[in-house]
Amino acid sequence: MKRTLTAADKAKLASFLRVNQAGELGANLIYKGQHAVLKHTNPAVAPTILHMWEQERHHLATFDRLIAQHRVRPTFMRPVWEAGAFAMGAATALLGTKAAMACTEAVETVIGTHYNDQLRELQAMDLDLGLQKTIREFRDDELEHLDTAVNDWDAKGAPAYPVLTEVIKMTCRAAIKVSERV
């Protein structure tokens, strides 16, 4: 039996949709920035970037639709996330393919954890609305990107790998916290 959404349920759903849309927007622009550089500096990686980017475009389109369907206000931080995500993608790509893949690994590690946390919350709330299936599917795509970055493109061989990935992870975690609310 489907239960009626409480005000707290609606607020939690709005937060999930807002942050997930913002995250998928960021992922799109990271890959756009990476592709803009790597298609020239390492054309061999371009098909991999395009494949991951295409999945992210699908994720963003899905959350765009869900935001509209549930009448949720998107994050006010969109212009900042757009500029920052593209810059992150392009800057890491300028450091080389391994650095771009270290960026992918760091981002997808944080997003995989983020999606797992949301799945646990939705299960505890006994609130689905079809969102669990979507989040699970998208989480699996993100973890596939992480595996590709590490196993196929040697992300861990990036210059200053520990520092680079930790800075990117901290940036992603901060963006998540802000986008949940603002």
From TrEMBL:
Protein localization: Mitochondrion inner membrane
Cofactor(s), by name: Fe cation
Membrane association type: Peripheral membrane protein
UniProt organism field: Protomyces lactucae-debilis
EC numbers: 1.14.99.60
Binding site for Fe cation 1: 24, 56, 59, 142
GO molecular function, one term: 3-demethoxyubiquinol 3-hydroxylase activity
Keyword line: Iron, Membrane, Metal-binding, Mitochondrion, Mitochondrion inner membrane, Monooxygenase, Oxidoreductase, Ubiquinone, Ubiquinone biosynthesis
Subunit structure: Component of a multi-subunit COQ enzyme complex, composed of at least COQ3, COQ4, COQ5, COQ6, COQ7 and COQ9.
Catalytic reaction(s) noted: a 5-methoxy-2-methyl-3-(all-trans-polyprenyl)benzene-1,4-diol + AH2 + O2 = a 3-demethylubiquinol + A + H2O
Enzyme class, UniProt record, top EC level: oxidoreductase
Name this protein carries in UniProt: 5-demethoxyubiquinone hydroxylase, mitochondrial
Family recorded in the similarity comment: Belongs to the COQ7 family.
Keyword Chaperone: no
Pfam families reported in the protein's UniProt record: COQ7
Keyword Transcription regulation part of the UniProt annotation: no
Function text: Catalyzes the hydroxylation of 2-polyprenyl-3-methyl-6-methoxy-1,4-benzoquinol (DMQH2) during ubiquinone biosynthesis. Has also a structural role in the COQ enzyme complex, stabilizing other COQ polypeptides.
Main location: mitochondrion
Binding positions (Fe cation 2): 56, 108, 142, 145
